[in-house]
């Protein structure tokens, strides 16, 4: 089983991975990509830093168990996987055609949308202008590129399930 940034959306990760394990033969392989912490990813961290620049507290956000390799390993081992490994992957990623495209995407994310909704209109405009300025420094002729950090998680199905 291979997933690229999809497992983060499981409603019940423990049940989902248990079901995936049941579908694999012993020794079957699992591999997926998941984001590291928001602070290591400009696609998520850049707008949060813009809020902070304007004195808006952003809090720590929702706990993301997939951002921490130890928690992922515990989850997978509890679901019947073994040999869990998480390799750090870093690099540039194209996140949109231009600044307006990326800004539209960022505004639609739940965290940014909720933070913007908590602000008066003038402050929201200033925050978005700061995000746009920072995105402009990452724009190239072929799109807007940002630094990203992900985990490549691999595991194998342990022996037969009871």
How would you portray this structure in words?
- With 162 residues, this protein is α+β, with helices and mostly antiparallel strands.
- 41% of the residues lie in helices and 27% in strands.
- It has six helices and five strands; from the N terminus they run βαβααβαααββ.
- Strands 1, 2, 3, 4 and 5 form a five-stranded mixed beta sheet that branches.
- α2 (42-53) crosses α6 (121-136) and α4 (99-108) crosses α6.
- It is elongated.
Quick rundown:
With 162 residues, the chain is α+β, with helices and mostly antiparallel strands. It has helices at 13-23, 42-53, 69-78, 99-108, 110-117, 121-136, and strands spanning 2-4, 29-35, 81-96, 139-140, 143-157. Strands 1, 2, 3, 4 and 5 form a five-stranded mixed β-sheet that branches.
Number of helices: 6
Task: Tell me what portion of residues adopts beta-strand conformation.
Answer: 25-35%
- Percent helix range: 40-55%
Indicate the overall shape: elongated
Mean pLDDT: 91
CA-CA gap between termini: 21 Å
* Rg (CA only): 19 Å
Structural category is alpha+beta
Order of helices and strands: EHEHHEHHHEE
The largest sheet, given as strand count, sense and whether it forms a barrel, is:
5 strands, mixed
Number of DSSP strand runs: 5
Low-confidence stretches: none
């Amino acid at each position: 089983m291979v997933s690229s940034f999809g497992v983060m959306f499981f409603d019940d990760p423990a049940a989902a991975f248990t079901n995936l394990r049941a579908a694999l033969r012993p020794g079957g392989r699992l591999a997926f990509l998941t984001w590291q912490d928001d602070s290591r990813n400009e696609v998520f961290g850049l707008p949060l830093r813009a809020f902070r620049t304007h004195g808006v507290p952003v809090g720590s956000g929702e706990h993301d168990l997939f951002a921490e390799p130890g928690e992922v390993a515990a989850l997978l081992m509890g679901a019947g996987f073994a040999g869990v490994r998480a390799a750090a992957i870093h690099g540039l990623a194209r996140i949109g055609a231009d600044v307006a495209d990326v800004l539209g995407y960022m505004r639609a994310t739940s965290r940014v949308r909720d933070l913007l909704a908590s602000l008066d209109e003038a402050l929201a405009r200033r925050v978005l202008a700061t995000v746009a300025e920072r995105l402009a420094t990452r724009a190239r002729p072929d799109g807007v590129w940002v630094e990203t950090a992900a985990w490549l998680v691999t595991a194998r199905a342990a022996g037969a399930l009871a």
